[in-house]
Amino acid sequence: xxxHREIFASRPATxxxxxxxxxxxxxxxxxxxxxxxxxxxxxxxxxxxxxxxxRDFAGAGEFNHDDALLLLAPxxxxxxxxxALLTHPRWPLAIWRALxxxxxxxxxxxxxxxEPSELSxxxxxxxxxxxxxxxxxxTRLQQRGxxxxxxxxxxxxxxxxxxxxxxxxxxxxxxxxxxxxPSAPPVAQWRIDNGRRWEFCRLTGDxxxxxxxxxxxxxxxxxxxxxxxxxxxxxxxxxLAATGAPPRQLDLWIKGPxxxxxxxxxxxxxxxxxxxxxxxxVPGEQRPALVGSLxxxxxxxxxxxxxxxxxxxxx
Length: 315
Description:
With 315 residues, the protein is α+β, with helices and mostly antiparallel strands. It has a single domain, classed as Thiol Ester Dehydrase, Chain A. It has eight helices and twelve strands. Strands 1, 2, 3, 4, 5, 6, 7, 8, 9, 10, 11 and 12 form a twelve-stranded mixed beta sheet that branches. α2 (48-58) packs across α7 and α3 (66-77) runs antiparallel to α7. It is globular, with a radius of gyration of 19 Å. The model is unreliable at 302-315 (pLDDT under 50). This is Acyl dehydratase. It comes from Rhodopseudomonas faecalis.
């Protein structure tokens, strides 16, 4: 396929991109892979008012983790640009088959509120496994000509897509999440907020009925409706015990739903590098619904670590 560039002068409208999810998808072909498409949102910005709304959704009256929430804010408010990419007729697979299951969010410089910015997203890598396909979507936020935030969102499609292959370098969160002791004392417990479902959908542009309607969620095999994982992650960040310097990187592993109204239990453990690992459990589940790692410094990309290790072995 020829390169494709699509520019939005204002916020991508859900009524514009979501109907395209009903169009037939071209289908996956290994020799073609993901299309060379870049979607750009001009005049994107995170307002002070939006940050106040996110603090409210996080469930903390006096929010002491603004630095951590700022890592998450572009992922929430810019997610509709990713939705526009995944629903485009050039995209090889239907969006309803996509599962968002790993995220790496990095703060690369000072992120200014109310500042005109440019947000862009494109596929940067993909991997075919025996039981599915992983695609890494790279999003970048630019302010005043510099990239101040970026993310790698890894989406997963179940199924068989041919022989195993790997394209591009994997810079996202590792495939294996940290392991926390489920018997350790919790740092916080709260009930997952059951209200304002439409309001959070408007923030993300994601109106999946599983985040809105329990009856639909039951039909899809779930125990009930559940919030967007970004909303659950914000609640986790708001309840973590404050530690040290502001974080620069957040890795998230989405393991399963945390249903509306469920009693959430959060556990936290220090990392050797000065950061924090955390995990959220809900009743009836042995494994956590969400696992995360907060880093005080940017982690070195795995490809750089591998090259460094190779140079050391050859020295």
